[in-house]
Each structure stands twice: as structure tokens, then as C-alpha cells.
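Suppose you are handed only these lines of text.
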Amino acid sequence: MEIPGQQKDWLSRLKSGLTKTRSGLASAFTGQKIDEEFFEALEERLLLADCGLPATELLMKKVRDTVLEKALYKAEDARQVLRDAIFDLLRPLETNMGVDRARPMVIMVVGVNGAGKTTSIGKLANHWAEIGYSVLLAAGDTFRAAAREQLDVWAKRSNVEIISSQGADPSAVLFDAVQSAVAHYKHIVIADTAGRLPTQLHLMEELKKIKKVLNKAKPDAPHEIVLVVDASNGQNALQQIKAFDEALGLTALVVTKLDGTAKGGIIASMAMSTRVPVAFIGVGEKMEDLRPFKPRDFANALVGMDQSPQPATGTSA
Ligand SMILES: Nc1nc2c(ncn2[C@@H]2O[C@H](COP(=O)(O)OP(=O)(O)OP(=O)(O)O)[C@@H](O)[C@H]2O)c(=O)[nH]1
Ligand SMILES: [Mg+2]
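From them, the structure of the protein bound to magnesium ion can be written out as follows.
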């Protein structure tokens, strides 16, 4: 349950997190009127925000068509049209990671080095623990001592349990963690894994093995296979999604570091190129900076509007 104050706080965090991307886009709206120059500037800004060509073309067509259809002439009106078009585009990416559908719910987290896996796991553990779930963290990044320590800090901060073992095979640690969670009737297990590039084939094989082993520990696990992607990787993030999805069959994405980049349009690119939904987005390093992805709020924050999109704008065809 979301309490109104929290929601308001999150909206302002989201807005401030997306400042870099928004100010890039906003410069297209500085003129007064809609003319060819405006359309060209907007197209350029969408591309610079890393929306990618297919999404940019789709958004531009919707903006142009609606402007014509409604005989709009003020650049400011086009802002709302763009917002609605972005909302329509992002809507299919929304998902609800219901953590009540299994007990324990087993979530495997993967991604390239430094994407924000461990931090995001810490934030999620804290979020779920706060609302009353028992969470067990499983340190599947067994080779680096610092990696285990980092997860340990998050576990302590949120007062949740952690299972780790130095130098052990990651599959073995994660197997034990799931077994322990079953035995102790925990709600959620989150399995951290070491960062890796999709081109490191032996490490991708290791992830396939981990997936199999989790399934051995509990026949319907893993319930979620989550790829964490850093938004500032831009178009490269799309390659990561494709490669990890082919290897593992992803169920959801976490898109981090939207605050550190002017490339927040990358989520629009994702909408054109993947079927994997975005469960959470990260807009900062604080505990509260990771929250479920809501296309409506995201579209508003991206173009700098506060109100909700109106459904009858002619952009949903
Ligand atoms: N600004 C910002 N920084 C973030 C966000 N998410 C994670 N970070 C930072 O990104 C850095 C790397 O995060 P980690 O969680 O260690 O990344 P990782 O994927 O576990 O890294 P490896 O285990 O080394 O592969 C840390 O400094 C985090 O604080 C975010 O949404 N915004
Ligand atoms: Mg890590």
C-alpha cells in the first residue's frame, strides 16, 4: 500500500532524477510556435535522449499527426501530445512483480559489471522488509570478498538475513539459500550474481547452471530472472537485454542510473525492441530511489508535466 506522502515524494525524486534527460528534451519547446523547425529540433532531441530511430520516428509521427488533426499551433501544446505518445509507447513495459505468487519467491538477478545489481537488491530487500516480508539475500557473487561485504552491509541495514560463502561455487551457495528459505518459510529470496559481459560465454554458461540449480532447489524457481541495466549505457543496453534474454529467458528489467544520464529516452528504445517489461527504475543512490516503473509518471517526468495524461488525445491508435 502506497501512502500519499510517499507517492508525492517519489514523484519529485523521479522528476529530479530525470532532470538531465528532460532538460535536453525541453530545449525543443523553447520557441513559441509549431513549425518545421520545431519538428526538426524535437526529432533531434529525441535522438539525443537515446530514444533510438524506430521510437523517435513513431513518436514524431504521432506528434505530427495530432498537431495536424487538432490544428495545434503552440509548441507548448505539442509537449502534451508528446507526453501522451510516450505514455502509449511505454505502457506495454509496465509489470507488477507480485511477490505473493510463490513462497519463497525466488528472484535471480543478473547483469554486466557495475550495472547496479547489488545496490538494487539492497534497495528491494529494504522495501519488501519494510512492508512485512521476510527476505533472504543470497550472495552468489562468491569470488570477490568486497562483493559479499557489500551485500552484507545492505542486509544489516535492512535487518534481513544473508547467506554467503567465500570462494564457493555460486550455484552451491544459491542452492543452499533456496533450501534454507524453504525450510524457514521465507517470503522472498534474492540471488545476487557476479557481473559479466554477454560475450564471456563461460560466465553465461555459469548463469544457465545457476538457473538450473535454483530450479532443482525448488521446482518452480526461479520465479523471476531480472536483468539490471545501466541507463547510461544507452543503445548498448539493448544488446545486453537481447543477449541475456536469449541465454536465460528474462522476466523483467531493472533500469538504473537514470539520474546520471541525459539518455533516459533509452526506455522508449526498449519499448520498441524487447518484450521484457521494466519492473523497477533507479533514479539515485539512496534507499528510496528505486521504485516500480509507472509509464504515466515516467512520461510526465520526462517532458516536465505534472498532470496525468488525458486518454482522449488521439495518440493511442
Ligand atoms: N546515481 C545512481 N547510482 C546508482 C544507481 N544504482 C546503482 N548505482 C551505483 O552504481 C554503482 C555500482 O553498483 P553495484 O550495485 O555495486 O553494481 P553491481 O552490478 O552489483 O556491480 P558488480 O557486482 O561489480 O557487477 C554503485 O556506486 C551504486 O551506488 C542509480 O540508480 N543511480
Ligand atoms: Mg554486485
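What can we learn from it? Residues 111, 113-119, 141, 147, 195, 228, 256-257, 259-260, 282-285, 289 surround guanosine-5'-triphosphate (ligand 1) (CB under 6 Å). Residues 296 and 308 are 7 Å apart (CA to CA).
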